[in-house]
Specification:
- There is one protein chain.
- By secondary structure, the chain is α+β, with helices and mostly antiparallel strands.
- The chain is built from six helices and four strands; from the N terminus they run E-H-E-E-H-H-E-H-H-H.
- Strands 2-3-1-4 form a four-stranded antiparallel β-sheet, sandwiched between helices.
- The N and C termini lie far apart (64 Å).
Length: 188
């Protein structure tokens, strides 16, 4: 078992006409997970317009705590209450930062693509944070200022913006990286 934090990502398509019941049920599940030891957080990514597939993310301290939650009677009862609200779910477990970029297939994007995807998520969030709270934190010494900003930004990045960035950039992230052709200079 892994001692690193583990993320369970689940994709569920909302059953026709059950949107309100589905969202209430999702909130109930997040509250249920929050009561379990080892729970680190959760998030929900709503589908883009015209789609009905939600991405639900649960993060736990390690594989053991995730397994205890997954096999608990209360989670089983919650899943039973959700019957008819969604189609068969697609589940995936992930460990560490590379897991945001892995796919069901064998390909993991090169680090430079991962860095761009993270930067594209991080830049606008950091900019909005500085615009909104930068002046309020400016009077603090550097260490408390950086501590406050990273405590606020890290959950937003991990549970919302990095998954959103990787989802939106998935075709590019998973596309094979082509090498540039090598040219030989010829002397005239």
């Amino acid at each position: 078992m892994s001692s690193k934090p583990v993320t369970l990502m689940v994709a569920r398509r909302v059953a026709r006409g059950r949107y309100h019941d589905f969202t209430v049920w999702l909130d109930e599940g997040r509250e249920l997970a929050a009561d379990f030891p080892g729970y680190l957080g959760s998030g929900i990514l709503a589908p883009p317009p015209g789609d009905d597939e939600y991405q639900i993310i649960f993060r736990f301290q390690d594989s053991d705590t995730l397994a205890r939650w997954e096999h608990s009677a209360s989670r089983r009862a919650w899943l039973e209450r959700g019957a008819g609200l969604f189609d068969a779910p697609l589940e995936r477990r992930a460990v560490g930062l590379d897991s945001w970029f892995s796919s069901p297939g064998p390909r993991v994007p090169p680090r430079w693509k991962q860095a761009i995807a993270i930067w594209l998520a991080f830049f606008p969030v950091s900019l909005m944070f500085q615009w909104g709270l930068g002046n309020a934190l400016a009077t603090l010494p550097m260490v408390p200022r950086v501590l406050a900003s990273t405590l606020m930004l890290t959950p937003v990045m991990v549970f919302l913006f990095i998954p959103l960035s990787t989802r939106l950039l998935a075709p590019w992230l998973q596309a094979p990286t082509r090498r540039l052709p090598r040219f030989k200079l010829r002397r005239s």
